[in-house]
Amino acid sequence: MQTLERVYTLSNIILLPAWLLLIFAPNWRWTDRVVHRIWIPLLYCLAVTLIVFIKPQSPEGASIASLRGFMLLLSDPMTVLMVWIQLVIWDLFIGAWMARDARRYGIHWGWMVVPMIVIYIFGPPGLVLYLGLRWGMRREVGLDERPATSSQPAFLAIPTPISSSSPTLRISVQAT
Question: pLDDT tier at 139 (50, 70, 90 boundaries)?
Fold first, then answer.
């Protein structure tokens, strides 16, 4: 159990610098190099994969097919750790997308501090807060990564493109 506690603590400590960069220096080139690359998500995905292979068998009846079965799954500390790691990396993934999206739409980083802190602490409500903020400022609700088309008031604009010198993971969601 002590090893699991260390992995849990480490999983939080490793992400803290990334979150601080997203909140306080979203347009800095090192934020792009550290947060918007594949290395942190890859590390966390490998950790979850390792847990899947070393985890003992789940209790009888444990599954994701029902709430009761899922609660049984969560009675195992390794499964809880695995789910936690998935949650924290997902929140960082969404926070990184929000930072890139805000930059694309010219939303000043000062407006992003509260949504970033909320997503760091509570997860999905931070995304809802950001999408509401973006709707209020740009009347835009799409989740794709196309360039912004609306005019940007000078007091909100930060024309700092993401560096294209190294590969960046891009997500595009299109309605069918």
Answer: confident
pTM of the model: 0.75
Total count of residues recorded for the chain: 176
Q: What is the pLDDT, as a whole number, of residue 142?
A: 75
Q: How far apart are CA 144 and CA 135, in angstroms?
A: 14
CA pair distance 3, 1, nearest whole angstrom: 5
Q: With contact defined as beta carbons under 8 Å apart, do 159 and 148 qualify? A: no
For 51, residues 6+ apart whose C-beta sits below 8 A from its C-beta are 78, 81, 82, 85
pLDDT at 154: 46
Residue of higher predicted confidence among 133 and 58: 133
Cα Rg of the chain, angstroms: 18
Q: What is the largest CA-CA distance in the chain?
A: 60
Three-state DSSP class for residue 164: coil
> In the chain, what are the domain boundaries?
2-138
